[in-house]
Amino acid sequence: MTGIIQKIKSLQWQHFVFILLIAAVAIGSDGCKTTGKMSKKERKAQIELAKKQLTEIINGTSTRPLEAQERTVNEITNKHFKDPELDKMIEEARQVLKKAFAEKEKQKQEQIDAARAELLDMLLNKDDKSADELEAELAKIKSMNLGNKDINDLIVKVEQKIAAMRTKKNVPLKNQLENSFQGIADASKSGNASQVMSLTRSTLQLFSSEDATVLIIISKEGSIVDYDKPTTIKRYLEFVRDQKASRNEVDTYQLDGAGKIKELDLIKK
Questions:
Q1: Percentage of residues in the chain with pLDDT exceeding 70?
Q2: In 10, 90, 111, 186, which residue has its Cα 20 to 30 A from 71's Cα atom?
């Protein structure tokens, strides 16, 4: 009987010791997790992953944005693995990204320069493009989202030009001509040569050529019309510029098949 009791006590003690061992393992495992320590196996796996990520950056095979690649390099650096090979790869990746950012900035500046040139050409509109054509070209530049103040300012100016072209299109041709003549006279009087040139160029675009005939009516009685010596639209605009005054208004005009003025009759105001 005494032997049986001793065996029972021995089994209970072994069971108690087994429970203590399990608890110790569990506590030890939790302790590793809470203190942020990692096993050699985990450390090795993370270093291998870091090397793989850095290799993609160094070789230029990563499809992620440069900013995301830079964040990856910083995250790996901040883990302080103290692995010589990894440290070397980190520095190499930094140099690769530095060059990539510089190239990206260079390309953006080239885009800005090209967009600026295009916008300035649109403002001059030497090719006499329509408002719709200019608007289509402007949409392409706006879609680039360059985020440059000078470009944004030029975009606003081109938008204003397009709006003015659309408004001008609804103004009767007679009024357009007379406004242009007066504008050239006023600009010449104030010494604004660039505006004189701009108005002259836009006015000539209304004619079939700069040699289109201009007749100035001296007197008109019924069907009897007396004209001054014929001139051309180019010479007439130069005359308005030199005189710094617009003394004639539109009487009649003839259009060609393209809707351009091929002959203009003026009469003194």
A1: 86
A2: 111
